[in-house]
Amino acid sequence: MVNEYTGPPPQELETFLPKDQKNGSSTYKVAPASINVEKGALADFDPFRERKVDHPTSDMDTLTHLLKASLGTGILAMPMAFSYSGLVTGIFATIATALVCTHCAYVLVKCAHTLYFRSRRTTMSFSEVAEVAFLNGPAWARPWAQFMKHFINYGLFITYFGTCSVYTVIIAENFQQLIEHYFGWKGDPRIFISMLLIPLILLSWVPNLKYLAPFSSVANVFMGVGLLITFYYCTTDMPPISDRKLHTSLIQIAPFFGIVIFAMEAIGVVMPLENSMRTPQHFIGICGVLNKGMGGVTMVYILLGFVGYVKYGNDAAGSITLNLPIEEIPAQIVKILIALAVYCTFGLQFYVCLEIGWDFIKEKFTKRPLLVNYMMRTVLVTAAVLLAVAVPTIGPFVGLLGAFCFSILGLLVPVFIEMVTYWEQGFGKFNWIIWKNVIVCIFGVLALIFGSKDAIADIVKLYSKNGSDGIHETTMGAIEGLLETTAGPLE
Fold it and tell me: What is the pTM of this model?
């Protein structure tokens, strides 16, 4: 990436600066600030040293959050994804997808670090990075700054709020299945969803990411144990690898990318995590938090996708847990652990909504801001639960929103930010950055098309059934449709 900063284009302020006239040319009576070419920064300002965070997170805390954001329930759809790609193609395609998703997150943070120096700011949200990049970019980009800021904020808020609502359905359905199995009581799922209101409100009151780290750690442990049990089932009595296809056609592999991109993508939590770090410069780099987290996540994704597809073949469900025998205790433990992991994850997803919502209203409530903040948390959680109660089959709709928003926000927007951030510096030898971004855009368009297609298919499938009983019976199918497209990244 080219990050040498040569200075912004001339600004209106220059009109008012005193000038010397020499040989018909104008020079300004202003001594230029020293420039650190390596960092592209004003040498007298270090945003990392100047950053003040009340409760900064350590590198390990950030890694824990990142693992929870990327290693979510979407991983359970990997065996089905491998059924679209084949074993060998699936391995290399997963690695390629991980590289693209990780690179887009890297680009966003790298641009943010460059813009910190230019704007003399120490923290910025995702939307603020886009706004500042466009404001300091070429003339054609500046009128789009406010639009980009609002588009990102609205897209993230709607998608994450919808996902928080779906999380309540996922938790309720998992516990309901166990209760029905043991007690034979088939209650209305809305009752189970309503019972989650108080526990979710209490979780939402955790004040910041520093104190959310233990919840992410617990969620990682629950998910890890659940995956180990799932691996046990997948590796028991496995058929020979020769029974499974190694490759598929380009047409068949397309849905693979839709599943894996949305399972890995976690663009919404990248900047909140970076903003909360004690050492934000450690987030990127060859051995940075981002690469460590995504490297480990990719290996787990490949492993589960491989063994799950070898075990169940084309019968692999949208969530591999659906292939586990419900009458067996270990399989029941998996459902409990995943439900608890999703509950612990709710706070991390809710934090994105909280950060965006608080930015909208904090200027209007300067008196008693802490009280207003907690009132907003309570109202947002209550609204998410009420939405789940009103529409317990909301999963496919949020899947459609996620397919639309995260293909654009997670893949396309970061490369646009990179283009305008480094517009004045050029794009490297042979304009390699432009060609690289073209490839990323192709991934983004594929994710948009096939992610939206699968979500729409889930909606049609759900409402093609007649009667409320039919809809209730397909609630879990609707949720699993969400897992195929958005639950993973939003974890």
Answer: 0.77
Share of the chain above pLDDT 90, in %: 33
Listing DSSP states for 91-108 in one string gives: HHHHHHHHHHHHHHHHHH
The pLDDT tens digits of the residues spanning 270-299 come to 998 999 999 999 999 888 999 999 999 999
Report the chain's C-alpha Rg in angstroms: 24
- Separation of alpha carbons 123 and 137, rounded Å: 19
Please give the structure tokens belonging to residue 452.
């939206």
Show the beta-strand stretches assigned E in 157-284: none
Report which of 87, 83, 81, 75 is spatially closest to residue 334, judged by C-alpha positions.
Answer: 75
DSSP H or E segment with residue 42? strand 41-42
Count CA atoms closer than 13 A to 223's CA, side-chain side.
Answer: 28
DSSP designation for 411: I
For residue 8, how many other CB atoms are within 10 A of its CB?
Answer: 11
Classify each residue of 203-234 as buried b or exposed e, where b means 16 or more C-beta atoms within 10 Å of its C-beta.
bbebebbbebbebbbbbbebbeebbebbbebb
* SS3 state of residue 474: coil
State the chain's mean pLDDT as an integer. 81
- The separation between the first and the last C-alpha atoms of the chain, rounded to the nearest angstrom, is 29
Report the pLDDT value the prediction gives residue 444, as an integer from 0 to 100: 85
Count how many residues are written for the chain: 491
pLDDT tens per residue, range 218-258 = 888 998 899 899 999 999 888 998 889 898 877 778 778 87
